[in-house]
Amino acid sequence: MTGNLSITGMSPVHVGSGKVYSQLDYIAEGQTVHVLDFDSILAELNPSSIDDLTREIEENFKGNIWKGNVSEFLGRYKLEWKKHVEHTIPLRGTIGDNEIRRFIKTGNEIYIPGSSIKGAIRTAILSSILNAAPQRVQQVKGGIVNYFNDREVNRLLQGRGAQDDLLRALQVSDCIVDDPTGSTTITAVDILHLRKPQDSIPMFYEVLKEHFSGHGSIKIDAPLVASGNVNAGAFKLSKDNVIKALNDFSHEIVKHELETLASTGFPAFKPAIGFYLELDKQLKGLQQGEFIARLGMGSSSIAVTLYLVLRRDRDILEKILHRAGYFTFNERDSRNPDEIISQDGRDPVLINRSAKQRPKLGETWYCKIKRDRNRHLVLATPIERINDDIIHPVTRKLAASAKASSGNWDMVPMGWVRGKWT
Fold first, then answer.
1. Which of 14, 74, 347, 370 has its CB 3.0 to 4.6 Å from that of 205, i.e. a possible disulfide?
2. Class at the top of the CATH hierarchy for domain 322-382
3. Rounded distance, CA 95 to CA 351, Å?
4. Burial category of 195 from C-beta neighbours within 10 Å (exposed 0-12, middle 13-18, buried 19 and up)
5. Which of 375, 415, 420 is nearest to 187 (CA)?
């Protein structure tokens, strides 16, 4: 039986199309972005000027960066840009000269792909399986490379192969947004480092804003599950179990992020902490059939991988961080006496020259290492730590929310939605 799926936004959501609005595609005016219709522009342009306009674009438009002012550029060809606006989108933030990453659409219809929803369910189910039976971590340990899509982890759901995948029996439609025009905005997104949040890197995304609503369908193919043609041994696929897995996984994310962001002590993360505190309350007050999940860009590896489960095993953690480990830097480099090296193992370990932090003689560091092909030596990059815990990832993407404090946008985590399966 097919069930109804409704989704409401809790924070800005972005599912990318892979396309962008370049600097030549729009003009920003106050808190509005006007997207230009270049077909309309070319239709009005005097045919004798088309070659000149094309040449000027080729000369001044490199790497999606436009040298100059678009309004002035069009004015030189006696074109009034306001007559050639395809559509307008509200803007949060001061955009400057930035690309805008576009949301996935069919024509002009914006939607959340069923694959994004199903991907969130898959990760939550895998997390549920490993949490319910910790011995399974040892079962998959040998095959883990990047802690997400590895063969041994997938076997928890696939058994002998993709043809046995349990989630073949779960069908999720695309989620159609109820008011696509009124639900979208362009928002500033800051990439904040947990140690140096003041050094943010702003980017701009077309997003579904808070409180958007959408609808789709979801179905469990019970006869397929019962047929024995899918691997139903590790997880009992039912509506209640899927919803519980989603909410348990979201609770783990919220708990981890509250602890991590609070431990930094930086004011820049206060709005995000407040958001997670409210999210924690909502998780505890969910009704029958309701769930909270994280979708799309900005979810970070915390939400789209099994990091929160697998990090508990130190061996796995070192493996997934690309050959990480502890090294005592106990000697000076004979080739460069100003550098400290580690001789704990067979090969000397040198600190990567691009590393911003460097050990002192006798210090033990936790480092990510890689072999230098030219010198046949191992280079180490110190891994960020807070309160002696390994922090991964070390950055967070936060988007401008509808709420503003002291004249500035509050920056909150991306991708959170509330859903109901009826």
1. 14
2. mainly beta
3. 38
4. middle
5. 415
- Residues in the chain, overall count: 422
Q: Which of 237, 214, 242 is nearest to 226 (CA)?
A: 237
* Amino acid, single-letter form, for residue 5: L
Supply 213's token pair. 């609503």
Report the predicted TM-score, pTM, of the whole model to 2 decimal places.
0.84
CA 228 to the chain's CA centroid: 35
Task: Tell how far CA 220 is from the center of its chain.
Answer: 28
C-alpha–C-alpha distance, residues 193 and 395, integer Å: 4
> What sign does the dihedral 119-174-219-166 (CA atoms) show?
negative
User: CB–CB of 10/214 below 8 Å?
Assistant: no
pLDDT tens across the length of the chain (422 residues): 689 999 999 999 999 999 999 989 999 999 999 999 999 999 998 888 989 998 988 888 877 778 788 999 999 999 999 999 999 999 998 898 789 999 999 887 899 999 999 999 999 999 999 999 988 888 887 777 655 556 778 888 887 778 899 999 999 999 999 998 899 999 999 999 887 777 777 899 999 999 999 999 999 999 999 999 999 889 999 999 999 999 999 999 999 999 999 988 999 999 999 999 999 999 999 999 999 999 999 888 889 888 888 888 877 776 666 556 677 888 888 777 778 888 765 567 777 777 767 778 887 777 766 766 554 456 666 666 555 566 778 889 999 987 766 567 899 999 999 999 99
Give me the numbers of helices (H) and strands (E) for the chain, helices first please. Answer: 13, 27
User: CA angle, 192 as apex, 191 and 195 as ends, to 5°?
Assistant: 150
Count of CA atoms in the C-beta half-sphere (13 A) of 105: 15
Q: Compute the distance between CA of residue 56 and CA of residue 393 in angstroms, rounded to an integer.
A: 43
For 34, what's the count of Cα atoms within 13 Å in the CB-facing half-sphere?
15
> What distance in Å separates the CA atoms of residue 335 and residue 328, rounded to the nearest whole number?
19
- Integer Rg of the chain from CA: 25
Domain boundaries, the chain: 12-108, 111-182+211-313+403-421, 322-382
